[in-house]
Amino acid sequence: MQKYSKQTRLLLAVDCIIFGFDGDTLKILLIKRGFEPEKGNWSLMGGFVQVAESLDQAANRILKQLTGLEGVYLEQLHTFGSTKRDPIERTVSITYFALIDINKYEIQLSKDYHADWFPLKRVPKLIFDQQEMVEAAKKRIRYKAAMHPILFELLPARFTIPQLQTLYESVFNTQIDKRNFSKRVLATGLLIKLNDKDKAGSKRGAYYYQLNMQNYYAKFQAFMNFIPNPDTL
Predict the structure, then answer these.
(1) How far apart are CA 227 and CA 141, in angstroms?
(2) In the 8-state DSSP scheme, what is residue 173?
(3) Residue 179 burial (CB < 10 Å; 0-12/13-18/19+)?
(4) pTM for the whole thing?
(5) Rounded Cα gap, residues 27 and 119, in angstroms
(6) Are 10 and 89 in contact (CB under 8 A)?
(7) Residue 92 phi/psi, 5° resolution?
(8) Which of 118, 168, 173, 220 is deepest in the core (most CB within 10 A)?
């Protein structure tokens, strides 16, 4: 088979950044790295792309192998290719990120590689340039969440407006006025009010809502400026 001559070979890897919400806290899924260098330290889900698979196939295979998760929507984020990012060999990494409801996938989660959720505000030290990867993913999510209702992907089938506000405040790392938030989110027409309440937080309780899926898809591209100027938060 003909090959490109006089070209240096390098490794191609995939790293998966999985964000989850449990109703109270925004978290990130990490594993303990199983081989040197950095064996036993906390890491994103990563591995090498095989010759016969696409990037998407590699990302899904690696995620299932290391965590047991499958059927998770993964979106390609960025390519990291610093010449010294891996101390063993020249390795270029393609990053993917996903947003999931933790409770929905809790049963799938495998402990073979010590996969565990960490609050996004208390992430342990990560290997190589993976902290940079996480920061890039957070920035992308903030940008997209200001224009589109993607954060609803993190919520259970029924949720309260206080839970939704907690989620937005966690993503944007800011405090949002409670009354103004409720008014704006209800004005989108994306929520259907249910009859029952969550009374875990107070005697008065908070009504549960569910997502109006028809409006969700119809307004996905029209959900502009829900959070103005996300880069300034």
Answers:
(1) 12
(2) T
(3) exposed
(4) 0.88
(5) 4
(6) yes
(7) -100, 135
(8) 168
**Strand 11-21 vs strand 91-101: parallel, antiparallel, or unpaired?**
parallel
Buried b (16+ CB within 10 A) or exposed e, 59-95: bbbbbbebbbbeebebbebbebeeeebbeeeebbbbb
134 in Cβ contact with 17 (< 8 Å) = yes
Could you tell me the CA-to-CA distances from 153 to 142, 149, 156 in Å, in that order?
14, 8, 8
Inter-helix orientation angle 161-172/178-187, to 10°: 110
Name 107's bridge partners. none
User: In this predicted model, what pLDDT tens digit does every residue of 2-48 receive, in sequence order?
Assistant: 788 888 889 999 999 999 998 889 999 999 998 899 999 999 999 99
Pair of tokens at residue 211: 């997502």
Q: What is the 3-state secondary structure (H, E, C) of 138-161?
A: HHHHHHHHHHCCHHHHHCCCEEEH
Burial class (CB in 10 A: 0-12, 13-18, 19+), 114: middle
Rounded to 5 degrees, what are φ and ψ at 209?
-130, 160
Q: Which helix (H) or strand (E) holds 130?
A: helix 130-147
Per DSSP, 109 falls in state: -
CA dihedral in degrees (50, 53, 55, 58; nearest 10)? -60
